[in-house]
Amino acid sequence: MERRLIETMLSFSSEPCVVLNRGLHVVAGNDLARSSFALQAGDTFLDWVLNAPREKRKLTACFGSTAQIRFAMQTEAGQGLTACGWRLGGAFQSHDLIAVKLVETLRIKTGFANMTTAHRSNLQRAKRLHLQKIRLEQENQVLATQVETDPMTGLLNARGLHRMMEDAIAQRKVFALFYIDMNGLKVINDALGHEAGDQAIQTLARAIKENSRDRDVAARIGGDEFALLALHVHSTNVLRDIGEAIATTLAQHSVILPGERVQQLSAAMGIARYPDNGDTIQDIEKAADRAMYASKRMALTTVIAGDPRKRSIADALQSSIVGRPCGP
């Protein structure tokens, strides 16, 4: 009988099967026999079991009958199993081949081993998915940070600032918003070019960062306009000190204009407080913006919206509502 034909027959079996000749050598076997018991063509079947003489007599009996013969066997590892053997004859005209189907003990053990392997594979897959999730979360965090970051200064942009303000309002945290606008940037750009103007903008960004507290959040909201979100501040003296410190640091830097004219860097600052000056982001921003333009009009370093200590500020704030000044 052709080995290929035998293997085709065995491939339909749901059990591990091997075919033996009278010398009890494996003539053919299916995939299950190879994967479950490491039995394949050419192996000596009796080498695979422990009690060879007794098992040989039982297997030899299979050649004398076409009826199925079941008997217990024991492997070299001491594991018991039940074998079911029958002679291949009839149309194949071969009386010296028997088929042995291996069942029970090792089959159960193999099934358990397969389940264990599958379980380990699932654990590894779950681990890979978990690591992939962490990697995607990290990548998303990087992308979110890039979306909310000003590339020139490394500070937050307007979008990032709004998110921080939304979180603070949602949690009813007291905060103050500084609006900071550099003075004379147009003069620097026109006289020395935008590269010098960019350097001045970066100088202001550093001054804001150096003089703010660890809990505060600095942002560049466009051009030469900056903001500082000061969290958990109740004292106007603290706010004024922060503003004066930023102005002092900025004034230590200057640019040389054509004609050897020296221009010190300076900025106007307006401050609004939540919830004193409004309940929404828009209200706080409008109050800070008006205070900042009052600072420009009055040539003051810092103006705090609603500050009762400077009577003239009220008039300046009212006039700033009409329209922003055209000058720098």
Provide structural commentary.
By secondary structure, this protein is of the alpha+beta class. The protein is built from 10 helices and 12 strands. The strands form 3 sheets. A 5-stranded antiparallel β-sheet has the order 2-1-5-4-3. A 5-stranded mixed β-sheet has the order 7-8-6-11-12, sandwiched between helices. Strand 3 (69-74) and strand 4 (80-87) form a beta hairpin. Helix 6 packs antiparallel against helix 7 and helix 7 runs antiparallel to helix 8. The model is unreliable at 309-328 (pLDDT under 50).
Strand content: 15-25%
SSE topology string: HEEHHEEEHHEHHEEHEEEHEH
As a percent range, the share of helical residues equals 40-55%
SS element count, helices: 10
What separation lies between the terminal Cα atoms? 102 Å
What's the average pLDDT?
81
Decide which structural class fits the backbone.
Answer: alpha+beta
The main sheet orders its strands as 2-1-5-4-3
Topology:
Blueprint: H1 3-10, E1 17-21, E2 26-29, H2 31-37, H3 52-62, E3 69-74, E4 80-87, E5 97-103, H4 105-147, H5 158-170, E6 175-182, H6 185-192, H7 194-210, E7 217-222, E8 225-231, H8 236-251, E9 254-257, E10 261-264, E11 267-274, H9 281-298, E12 302-304, H10 311-322
Parallel strand pairs: 11-12
Antiparallel strand pairs: 1-2, 1-5, 3-4, 4-5, 6-8, 6-11, 7-8, 9-10
Helix pairs in contact: 6-7, 7-8, 9-10
